[in-house]
Amino acid sequence: MLERRPPFRVGIADVLEVFVFEDGTREECLVRPDGMISLPLAGAIRAAGRTPEEIAEGIAQRLGKYYENPTVSVKVREINSYRVYILGKVGSQMMISSVAPIRLLQALAIAGGPDEFASGRAIVLREKPEGGQERFEINYEKILKGSAPDQNIWLQPNDLVVVR
User: Fold this and answer.
1) Residue pair 72/63 in contact by the 8 Å Cβ criterion
2) Which of 17, 47, 86, 157 has its CA 20 to 30 A from that of 31?
3) Tens-digit pLDDT string for the chain (164 aa)
4) DSSP code of 79?
5) CA–CA dist 80, 98 (Å, integer)
């Protein structure tokens, strides 16, 4: 069984709209390179790596000293952070930018598919939230034959796919 699509998490360069019901303020915020956004009264709030709901909760907690039970909503206005990189033995090495998650085979197709020298294998390098990298070795020929559909993983922002 294929894994479920991962929940959307805000990333660097995404644009958020924050609405505070109590005072009617509406702020558009760019997620900075340090992963933070800044708001009046609330100050700097971590946004990168969190869901819009988690960000809204964090802002509401900060605003709790000014309002009783503040109601905050966070809407994603622009998704600029979903980028994956594909290189190696493909038709065209590239950065793929998308507003929706894509699977490994979709990335291969966008990059022009494996070239005639490809081995049928790929490596996916993924940054861990706590630092360091994870490495996944994938046999995409088995995915195509139907014997390993679970290896057609969802790519996460900043994944690096190396086709061998």
Assistant:
1) yes
2) 86
3) 456 888 899 999 999 999 999 999 999 999 999 999 999 999 999 999 999 999 999 999 999 999 999 999 999 999 999 999 999 999 999 999 999 899 999 999 999 999 999 999 999 999 987 889 999 999 999 999 999 999 999 999 999 999 99
4) -
5) 8
Q: Are 35 and 46 in contact (CB under 8 A)?
A: yes
Angle of CA points 97, 111, 2, to nearest 5° = 75
- Domain, as residue range, for 56: 15-78
CB 74 within 8 A of CB 53: yes
Other Cβ atoms less than 10 A from the Cβ of 67: the count is 15
38 and 96 belong to one structural domain:
no
User: Which two tokens mark 149?
Assistant: 């559909």
Q: Is 63 in the same domain as 88?
A: no
Residue 8 lies inside a defined structural domain of this protein:
no
Q: Find the DSSP H helices in the chain.
A: 52-63, 104-110, 140-145
